[in-house]
Methyltransferase (Roseivivax halodurans JCM 10272), 202 residues
Amino acid sequence: MTESADSIIGIYRRHGAAWAKARGTKLTEGVWLDRFIRMVRPGASVLDIGCGSGEPIARHVCSHGHSVTGVDASPEMIALFGANLPSETTELADMRSLNLGLTFGGLIAWDSFFHLTPEDQRLMFPVFRRHAATEAPLLFTSGPAFGEAIGTLEREPLYHASLDPDEYRRLLNENGFDVVAFVAEDPACTGHSVWLARRLAS
């Protein structure tokens, strides 16, 4: 399935506008986002990794008084983010090689991180660590168990993968994060499997 994983950026470049239209502005992630926001220090900046169009997640974070830096590897997605949230910062970058030289008061990788292969996911935890300030929350989605799956976007195959929950816990711990909560296939969040962690003091 690696070929499908390697094609993710191109798919979002071709179909970013269609994805944004289908995604809409309805906030189905509100319970988790609000929990995350309560953990971010007042006025702290948030890093949205795989930000897409900025709707509705980054906009919701901004509405609570936080600036957001949106990172995406698709120029088309970055353009949509900039149009929707012109006061916020954008970075065109592949999350796998992200090194902004900054730390943030919170990190989000919602429905983005899970497009990476298991091998690339393992390598992301040091990326999370170097961008997270002490006590910064990290919010991301995964699958409920180890495996790979193929969805579709505009009839093109869309790759997803997940590690086992025990491995996520180990990787978080090894990289200085404490797991606050994990819910597999949360019925209160349209079946998403959601992780919330916090960066510990070094």
Residues 151 and 191 are 15 Å apart (CA to CA). Residues 2-93+107-138+148-178+194-199 form a domain with the Rossmann fold fold (CATH 3.40.50.150).
